[in-house]
Design a protein that fits this description.
By secondary structure, this protein is mostly helical. About 75% of the residues lie in helices and about 0% in strands. The chain has one domain. The protein contains 18 helices and no strands. Helix 6 runs antiparallel to helix 7. The longest helix has about 40 residues.
């Protein structure tokens, strides 16, 4: 029901604001802009689904090889004790564990094109255990919120945009983004665990979270000793090396197990087109609603009101200029990227606001896009508390980014 009310709100808010602008402010072309936005966003939604078809076909085929060869189970073995406690409703040897691990790994390495089809595969596996097929299960909500929290080890794309905008050190936002996404992910785990009454104080969970914290801290200190060129080069190499090594591992184990690797790939790949077609209505619905909300100017008004409230209580407002990126990211990754670049162009890539906009881009994920695509792919209509938990993780990521920006970059 939450998605239903949010979707309606986007349209009603856009209409009322457009009506006010046309009558009071004399902006007679505002409704033409809104209608044009609906057609443009519908086209974009179809193009996104079409673009996903090829990469989904590829990775669903690769995953099928890994499943038949036992490679996915082998990789999942390393995190199964942790996943079993975060997803207690799943059987111990459920195939969703492997798919989720692959998805999280691709996300952390910044490989979005690979992460999406792997995430859709995981959602399909989770749906097999879902007793109420049109309602999100506990396991699906935990998986989705972990996805939307956007844990990123190396924000390659953000560093590339900073390099294009002539930043003195494009990688200087790496460490604060890493910590901000970690806090967002931790917040996502905590809030969902509270809803699902999962005890996070279990020794296994604490051991995995503690170990991961140590790993992130060690990686942070190591990369901090490298130059910006070395960080960018190292990130690009290891991200793609690891991903391609996974493909080779799957194929090699398929040969070892004497399965027909090619036929296994074709078998899995056939589902790529079907999934792409399934998600089109959900993408169109969400992107059109977001588009009219944005074009109406409602987002700008919200930010202006927030800036006034922050100033009224005596808090610093120098971060407000970067908030458009933060507010847009859960709605549209492309629009948030454009706002981030615009902020760097206006204020400078090395300004406090420019760096903070980059941190917002890297420390949160496109929550509503992920909801529409992942739940839409398996026909889920009732998201339960998934929207609220996903947005909570986003808010924590935004607040963490602001605090870290003051710690790292405030003059």
């Amino acid at each position: 029901m939450a998605l239903n009310y949010i979707w309606i709100f986007f349209f009603i808010a856009a209409f009322l604001l457009a009506l006010f602008k046309s009558i009071v402010l004399g902006e007679v072309g505002i409704f033409q802009t809104l209608v044009g936005s609906t057609f443009a966003q519908a086209k974009i939604a179809f193009e996104i689904a079409l673009a996903l078809t090829g990469v989904m076909t590829l990775w669903l085929g690769i995953m099928r090889i890994g499943e038949k060869a036992g490679s996915v189970d082998l990789l999942a073995w390393f995190v199964k004790p942790f996943f079993k406690r975060l997803f207690p409703s799943l059987p111990p040897d459920h195939p969703a564990f492997g798919a989720m691990l692959m998805n999280f790994s691709a996300n952390m390495l910044g490989l979005d094109n690979a992460a999406t089809p792997l995430g859709l595969k995981a959602m399909k596996e989770l749906q097999s255990e879902n007793q109420n097929k049109d309602t999100a299960s506990d396991a699906q909500i935990m998986f989705l919120v972990l996805n939307t929290s956007g844990l990123t080890l190396i924000p390659i794309s953000v560093m590339v945009y900073r390099l294009e905008q002539k930043a003195a050190d494009p990688s200087d936002i790496f460490l604060p983004i890493l910590f901000a996404t970690f806090f967002a992910t931790l917040a996502g785990i905590v809030i969902v665990a509270l809803y699902q009454k999962i005890n996070l104080l279990q020794p296994v969970i604490l051991a995995y979270l503690g170990g991961f914290t140590i790993l992130i801290t060690a990686l942070s200190f190591y990369l901090k000793t490298l130059s910006q060129e070395e960080v960018a080069s190292l990130a690009a190499f290891w991200s793609n090396f690891i991903l391609f090594s996974v493909i080779i591992l799957f194929v090699a184990m398929g040969l070892y197990r004497k399965i027909n690797v090619y036929e296994a790939f074709i078998e899995g790949a056939k589902g790529g087109f079907e999934v792409a077609i399934t998600i089109i209505p959900y993408l169109v619905a969400m992107l059109v609603a977001i588009g009219v909300f944005r074009e109406s100017g409602a987002m700008d008004w919200i930010i202006q009101a927030l800036a006034w409230c922050i100033g009224f209580v005596g808090l610093p407002t120098d971060f407000v200029a970067a908030l458009p990126t933060a507010f847009m990211k859960p709605l549209s990754g492309g629009a948030a990227r454009g706002l981030m670049i615009d902020t760097m162009q206006v204020h400078g890539a090395d300004s406090f606001v420019g760096r903070l906009a980059c941190m917002f881009q890297g420390s949160t994920d496109t929550t509503f896009y992920v909801l529409a695509v992942y739940f839409g792919s398996v026909g889920i209509k009732r998201a339960r508390y998934a929207v609220g938990c996903g947005l909570f993780a986003d808010v924590v990521g935004i607040i963490a980014a602001i605090v870290l920006a003051y710690i790292f970059f405030a003059v």
